Amino acid sequence: MSKRIPVTYPEITAPLRERTREALADAELGGNLRAAQASWAKGRRQMAEQHDFAAMRERATGIRRDNIARLPELLERLEERVRAAGGTVTRVADSDAACRYITDLAAARGATLVAKSKSMATEEIKLNEALEEAGLRVVETDLGEWILQLMQEHPSHIIAPAVHLNKEQIRSVLAAESGEAVPEGREALVAHARRRLREVFAAADIGVSGVNLAVAETGTLCVVENEGNARLVTALPRIHVAVMGMERVVADWSEAAHLLQLLPMAAIGDDAATYVNLITGPRAPDEADGPVELHLLLLDGGRAALRGTDLQDALNCIRCGACLYSCPMWRSVGGQAYGSPYSGPIGAVVTPLLEGMRGERSSELPFLSSLCGACHEACPVGIPLHDLLVRVRNRVTTPGHRRDRLRFRLWALAWSRPWAYRATRALARGGLRLAGRRGWARRLPGPGAAWTSQRDLPTRWPPRSPSS
Amino acid sequence: MRTCLADIAAPSIIDATRRVLEGCGVEVVVPRSQTCCGQPGWSAGHPDEARRVARRALRAFRGDDPVVVPSGSCAAMVTHGYLDLFTGRPEEAEARQMAGRTLELSQFLHQNGLRPESAARGSVTLHDSCHMLRLLGERESSRAVLAEAAPGVELREMAQTDVCCGFGGTFSVNYPEVSGRLGEEKARNAAATGADELVACDLSCLLHITGRARRTGIPLRARHLAELLAEDAA
Predict the structure, then answer these.
(1) DSSP secondary-structure letter at B151?
(2) Which of A50, A377, B97, B124 has the maximum number of C-beta atoms within 10 A of its C-beta?
(3) Phi-psi region of A297 (alpha: psi -120 to 50; beta: other; left: phi over 0)
(4) Which long-range contacts (CB under 8 A, 24 or more apart) does B117-120 make?
(5) How confident is the prediction along chain B (234 residues), in pLDDT tens digits per residue?
(6) Is residue B23 less than 8 Å (CB to CB) from chain A?
(7) How many CB pairs under 8 A join A and B?
(8) Is residue A111 helix, strand or coil?
């Protein structure tokens, strides 16, 4: 672990369509994604046989809607309980404030090494970059996140960050990091990583984690994981900093128990996660281990502004990643193409909302969807993602979308009048006849060009025999 | 309700729909003042523009008669999208009333126990369009109608019949490569069944799948369910 690796998000310059093209051309990526999706789908089918998923989903939807409706009250209660347990709670408005809190804390305590467990909130605020800039060494301890840190990539999936890679690709990354030969095989890779990472847990001054759910009733933070690294990150270093999206709070243990059961079912198609860490305050006087200080950061980052809007349901998300696996687009291009730590349908909804609507990548993401609704079907808390995608599209303010709106204004002008509709219909029919005299058009001009870049167009229906 | 797409690119589907319904003893009125349900604008993120077109549909279909549409997607626009467009607006009651009596063709036939007599023979494979499947929640009606109305037709289910074909309206031209890849997978799954033809309740999916099939050299014949149902002995 001698090398210091800067973790930076590559500037996203190629437009999204270009990135999807590159991803489609990557046959290895396609294979990795297919394998991952198939294993998830198999697990989900088993879950559906063993549990009344529909009923669990309905209850979970109700719980999350209620949580968000009562958010201010639940957050106050959570703060009060975490403080009563000896923790510190701070509300942070945005990424800068969140990162500054942690770098200031590190400076005040003289910290040099930060160990992290998997957390989407810290990906969102680009914490690693901020820590590196402040001269700290930061190491991701979730195996997938560590691999990505070494590769300087962002996660391609909410739950399985390195799901776009295969064993051999990972082996070469680990070999490059350690400067030694790494044996083949899944278990050997894990053993190698465990040995390298053990050194970090023991030496870290600060452990940073995310929070899957916080229980307002008792001030308990729930951190779900499969590797055991989060347990070490939240218990061994002297200081534990938990970064939590402010919407991830539930009222009580009955709600938490339900969601904690549903989360792995939706996320990985399994009944239970390997580890569920329940953290209530720092080490108490009568306890043998645990951190001396616990800092909980409640991140707004654009969330509070969504309450009371027609996009509020996006806050119900428990970050299980099921909508990613279920999405035909995500399955085709993977998460890297999205250029955001949040990819897939939920990423296409929340990235623009949390980042602001004007950015290039923000404005493109919601359009990378056929609105097929498979995401809504897969979502354990019933978020109508296909509707949210449409609503986010409406809010895009880029020049490209404004031009598109102008075209649709003309469309609305014509098609709200029957006579004008009939006139455009006659034009379109004539155009079709002209374009494809033999029953098929192979190349269309203007707006039809994108269609015929990939497909022929039947100009007579039913289409003539495909071979003609 | 005609669909604008069939009205332009495949009027034979509208004729077939009319013949199927009249053959079952249903009186069919096709209002001349209708244009489009408004979905293209709504799903592209232009609700104000979509509302203007949708208001035209509300006006054209006033009354209490059932509205039958040979498209799961357009039907879903009325039953689902109109609530999004008109909730909290003066037209809300009218939109809800229309949504309550709008059905996709096979749904209408199935729910009313109507049984057209089709002389079609051979084998078909059926594509579940996404909006039919997930917004209307309808998987059975097309299969039931097919079994009852066309006993001479064998249904061969394809792999992943519930996965999107990748059309997706403006998505098909915004991200044509991703869309094309998915269309190709769908065409391959359909062709792999060895069925004589692909049948669906949505023309939009069929234009995309057959177009991609032809471009990539996958032999695939296709037609709309209404056309299969309307096939007579002559």
Answers:
(1) T
(2) B124
(3) beta
(4) B117/B23, B117/B149, B118/B149, B118/B150, B118/B152, B118/B153, B118/B228, B118/B229, B118/B230, B118/B231, B118/B232, B119/B152, B119/B231, B119/B232, B119/B233, B120/B150, B120/B152, B120/B153, B120/B228, B120/B229, B120/B231
(5) 999 999 999 999 999 999 999 999 999 999 999 999 999 999 999 999 999 999 999 999 999 999 999 999 999 999 999 999 999 999 999 999 999 999 999 999 999 999 999 999 999 999 999 999 999 999 999 999 999 999 999 999 999 999 999 999 999 999 999 999 999 999 999 999 999 999 999 999 999 999 999 999 999 999 999 999 999 865
(6) no
(7) 198
(8) coil
Query: Measured between CB atoms, does B207 come within 8 Å of chain A?
Result: yes
Q: What is the pLDDT of residues A200-226, one digit of tens each?
A: 888 999 999 999 999 999 999 999 999
The encoded tokens of residue A464 equal 């003539």
Q: How far from each other are the two terminal CA atoms of chain A, in whole angstroms?
A: 64
Q: Do A408 and B46 touch (CB under 8 A)?
A: yes
B102: its two tokens: 């709008």
Ranges under pLDDT 70 in chain A: 1-13, 358-361, 466-468
CA distance B232 to A436: 29
Pairwise CA distance, residues A110 & A113, whole Å:
10
Q: Dihedral through CA A20, CA A23, CA A29, CA A32, nearest 10?
A: 10
The ipTM is 0.95
- Count CB atoms within 10 A of the CB of residue A434: 10
CA distance A125 to A131: 11
CA atoms of A289 and B148, how far apart (whole Å):
70
Residue B156 DSSP symbol = -
For residue B106, the one-letter residue type is: S
What is the Cα–Cα distance from B72 to B135, expressed in whole angstroms? 9
**A373: which chain B residues are within 8 Å (Cβ-Cβ)?**
130-131, 133-135
pTM of the model: 0.94
CB interface of A with B, residues 408-467, below 8 Å:
408-409, 411-413, 415-418, 421, 425, 428-429, 432, 440, 447, 450-451, 453-459, 461-463, 465-467
Residue A178's nearest CA partner among A187, A167, A191 is: A191
Separation of alpha carbons A232 and A289, rounded Å: 11
Residue A279 backbone dihedrals phi, psi, to 5 degrees: -115, 115
For an interface test with B, the pick among A45, A415, A425 (most B C-beta atoms closer than 10 Å) comes out as A415
Q: Is B88 on the interface with A (CB under 8 A)?
A: no
Chain A residues in contact with B207 by the CB 8 A cut-off are 457-458
Q: Does A37 touch chain B (CB under 8 A)?
A: no
User: B4 at the A interface (CB within 8 A)?
Assistant: yes
Q: Which of residues 31-50 of B touch A (CB under 8 A)?
A: 32-36, 40-50
Indicate yes or no: CB of A428 within 8 angstroms of CB of B8. yes
CA A327 to chain centroid, in Å, comes to 13
